[in-house]
Amino acid sequence: MNTKVNLCGIQLDNPVIPASGTFGFGYEFAEIYDINVLGTFSFKGTTLEPRFGNPTPRIAECTAGMINAVGLQNPGVEKVIAEELPKLKKCFHKPVMANVSGFSVEQYVETCRLLDNEEQVGWLEVNVSCPNVHGGGMSFGTSPEAAAEVTKAVKKVTTKPVIIKLSPNVTDIVSIAKACEDAGADGISLINTLLGMRIDLKRRKPIIANTMGGFSGPAIFPVAVRMVYQVSGAVKIPVIGMGGVQSARDVIEMMMAGATAVQVGAMNLVNPFACKEIIEQLPVEMEKLGIENLSDIKRI
Amino acid sequence: MKQSLFTILTNEPLTKDVFRMVLAGDTSAITASGQFVNIQLDGFFLRRPISVCDYDETTLTLVYKVVGQGTEKMSGMQSGEKLDILTGLGNGYNLEKAGDKPALLGGGVGVPPLYNLCKKLIAKGAKPTVILGFNKQDEIFYEEEFKALGAETIVTTVDGSYGVKGFVTDALKDVEYTFFYTCGPEPMLRAIGKAAKTSGQYSFEERMGCGFGACMGCSCKTLTGNKRICKEGPVMESEEIIW
After folding, report:
1. Chain A closest CA to B90's CA: distance in Å?
2. What is the pTM of this model?
3. What domains does chain A contain, in order, with CATH numbers?
4. Is A175 on the interface with B (CB under 8 A)?
């Protein structure tokens, strides 16, 4: 049984990747298991400047999922490089995926340029779901032109594979994925969270201080499978599937929808061993399905 | 942090909406009073963070209030049922700061974590004064339990239906103390922040995602930098809190 896959020229022991924002910089999990069993992981979304993020409450529960409005809290790229990456090196010995956010093309470019110099960074995952402060607050990921502009600019200053992480809160995700591919992206990851909201009935106010937030968890899995299927049918570059993945069977389903690798997000927060358990279960499910090599799985 | 299965031994009401659940299981990850556990419940996506009221080598005592659907479900659980629990979460109180006569100030469902703290302080030879604040008489719980530990115990009620009329700060005025430990609703913590004559430690509450430092869902700003209530907290020093 072979679980290895190739993601943009780098071999992964398995396709399981904890998603950005659900795994910090790895240490909380390294305390309880050897995180080197992972394919890789995508570290906490990093911006040029430090960010505290949104006011609390930032979390609301939903049926089979949750809403978060953390607001990209992170110490800023300089501290990530100076403090987080040296610590990470001690507990994780594989290439890591650097997740990058920005509020202008210039911020994306500078953050990616700095992280591209870091030896342990294997891939840059560029989250284009943030609002563009120069574009009236519209997210970069909601227009093919803006997403392509970020992709092109980042590609110019980087040597490592650039994966663009797309928002599902758009009318035509395929056109945005294609625009990123045409602009030079090496891969696409999707889906980011769906915009959601919950109301506290007693207070008659939104539960989340920011009113709305990103909905994730098993409830969004079918939406994610559908979008991965649509995008992977339209682009030639690798696609990383994510959104509500909670089991080895879900990983295989994502791969049958066209994903090369699969990220696991919200489940890490309720079961800190989720990714380890999924990785252990993969060969069992492969055996049942008669799959010898995971990389043989073709988009249906 | 440890994930393990606990078995419910007893689950009984203390007041109309406060319950005490005693569980058997592996408590080895719990290292300090004031830590919390995070409980998985069938049918709910996120875990429920609940402060540890008391623990020993083999049992865990939780005193919780029914505030939503998750705790409602917990209140209906029977002895023998099993729960998946993450233990050893958060920093907990620091006993070394107590001095001879610490004051322990609890408000409502903030009372439980002070119980194990009180037990340990007495074992260390300190003489704690415990002030428990409630709205009215029928909400009072754990007065007898604190007295049984040998602690000087004062109860306050907002409506004056039992004990000292007013808030815990009204009773605190007449107490000599070397340090204080508190847990309760934020308005109470703020009032203590204004009234206190010494340094102290406050335990805070926030809606959490994971409870173990991964999601940044419960961050707060302090004078010593950003902290996660679930990881660097829930206990904070009076000197670092930004009110």
Report:
1. 12
2. 0.95
3. 5-296 (3.20.20.70)
4. no
